[in-house]
Every structure is written in structure tokens, then in C-alpha cells.
Write a structure and sequence with these properties.
Layout: H1 4-10, E1 18-21, E2 29-34, E3 40-46, H2 54-74, E4 98-99, E5 104-109, H3 122-139, H4 156-169, H5 179-187, H6 189-192, H7 194-200, E6 207-209, E7 218-220, E8 226-229, E9 236-238, H8 241-251, H9 269-283, H10 289-294, H11 298-316, H12 328-343
Antiparallel strand pairs: 1-2, 2-3, 3-5, 4-5, 6-9, 7-8
Bound molecules: 2-acetamido-2-deoxy-1-O-phosphono-alpha-D-glucopyranose (GN1) and magnesium ion.
Amino acid sequence: MTDFHRILQAFGLDTESEIKPLGNGLINSTYLVTEPAGKRYVMQRINTNVFPDVDTLQDNIDRVTAHIRIKLAERGITDIERHCLRFLPNTATGKSYYHDGTDYWRIMVHIPDSITHETVTPEHAEAAGRAFGDFEKMLADMKPLPAETIRDFHNMEFRLRQFDDAISTNAAGRLDNVRDLVRDMLEIRELGCTAERLHREGKLPLRVCHCDTKVNNILFDTEGNVLCVIDLDTVMPGYVLSDYGDFMRTGANCAPEDEPDLDRIRINTEVYDAFTRGYLETAGEFLTDTERRLLSHGLFRFAYMQAIRFLTDYLNGDTYYRIAYPEHNLVRARAQWKLAREARHLLKTI
Ligand code: GN1
Ligand code: MG
């Protein structure tokens, strides 16, 4: 049994606080903590299967938030606390995490009057595009580079190798259900690895990226302005289309990422164009010509990568993503595969 009392104490919070589950992330477990005096915090149990090296993970986040704070201050922003996450130090160690003997915990200050969206309007999308481009811009001169908190996280060639392994192991005995889907998905593996090829050819640079730019990883205020980019676990070196493509995967899909009715999965072109406009406004300052053209691959690449990752987890017996029902990962994989096929029409030649 988790001793919440001790966790709150470790971060110097009121042990009489109320604790409620929050959000719907697939990896960490998140809670809203409200002190009797009303002050709120967000507490998370870190999933150490996904992030085994918590010290490096939190060190990355501390460095990223410190870097962003400096940039915001240089711009004369006065309400920095609304635009950058602040993690509480463990009062005993000074680190931004606490180990209770079994699990690792962290607590950040809740930003008041902030909301997340699971879908966005074109106006929100434009603001989000500007914010993610700006996030990359602020971190462009971060030295030393952040660590790779999950090795080969957005490496499509690696994801396909994991898929190959899951197929040959067939751990959950589910391969027979999905043979056609597996065959179709493998047919385009080379196209899916365009970015890796361009990088090898010296045409695509690594940059500091967020690498989990789902719509719900942005905090908006109630007027629709972006406050803050959240979920910083995966900030690491990557290709720009990591951020551009992963946002489109959720933001520019007319349906949720696990929509069972494939007819409802269509690209919302208004959101797509609005996000592109916003993103280019800020990221346009540093993108190379190749990167600009490659953005057309972003949605395709990330819907495809996510389809491969969900189907891999399905074949492995649901060991990675939290599921809500037995075939959930298969439903997710089919939905993302449909989106990838829609997104193929957008590809420009590089
Ligand atoms: C995971 O943290 P969360 O649940 O927002 C995953 C992302 C996937 C996403 C799919 C560390 O993100 O890569 O795109 O689920 N994060 C990790 O919904 O694997
Ligand atoms: Mg998240």
C-alpha cells in the first residue's frame, strides 16, 4: 500500500491534503493534490519500466525547466510560473523525486486556471504550433544536450525491429488474429524510415525536441491561450518532425487515437493548416529547407510509428500501454494505421 502521507511529507506538503486521480496518460500515474489551505499540486508515480533511470530523467527535466526559465526571463516575461513547470525538491535530498522503497514519486506545482484539451479548434492549434516551435527554439542552445531518457524512442528502424521480434515471438498467441494487418503495415517500412535515411545521408540534423506533443500535453488558459508545455519526460535530441508529427497525430485527427469506427478517422485540414502556420511562425527561424519539406511526412510517420508500437504491445500481451479493455491495443493500432493511410496523401518528395 502506498503511504501517501510519507510522500507528501518528503516534499514538505501538508499531510492532510486531498488526493484525486488526474488525467489519462498511458505511462505514469497522476494525481491532483489539494492542501487544506487550497494550494494545488500534481503528483506522479514515475513508471520505472519505461524510465528506469529516474535520476537522469529528473536531472534532464530540471535542466530543461531551468533553461526555459532563463529564456522567459530574458524576454521580460513576468508570470514565469504560469509558463514553465516547477518541481518541488525532496526536502531531504534536494532532488526532484522521492523513492518510497518501491516507487518513485515527484510533485509539481499546479498552474491555476489551466485546462487541457483532447481535441482542438483551429485557433488552439495555431497557438499550440507557435508554442511547440518556440519550445524547440528556446532549447536549441541547450548545452550539454539532454540525455536520451528512452533509448531509440522515436527511431522508426528500432520500432520496426521490436515489431519483428514481437511477430516472431508471438508471446500472447495473438498473431493469427492480425496477419493481414501485420503484412500491410510491413509493406511500407522503408517509406516509414525516411527520416533515419536522411539523417544517415547527413541531410537531417538532430535538435532538442519534446517528443510527446500530444494535444493534451499543452496547458491552455480559459481564453484559449497556451500557458505551458507539460510532460517533459521525453525531451531529448530528435528530428523536428517528432514534435510536428506527433501533435498532428492527435490534434489533426477528427477522432480519438483509439476510435473503433474507422470511418470517423479523417484529417482535420483546418487544424492541420493552422498548426502548420503557428509552428512555422516560430520554428521557421531555424528550419532547413529539407526539414520544411519533410514536415509533410510528420503526420504519416507518427501515425505509422504509433500503429507499429500499439500492435507490438498487442502481440506482446499488453505489457507497455495501460489498456481499458482486452483488445484496446489492437483497436488503437487499427485507428492509427487508418490515420497513417490518410496521411500518405500529404507526402511531398524530399
Ligand atoms: C505515451 O505519456 P503519454 O501517455 O502521454 C507514450 C507516447 C505515445 C502515447 C500514445 C513514454 O504518452 O510515446 O505517443 O502514449 N509515451 C511513452 O498515446 O512511451
Ligand atoms: Mg502525457
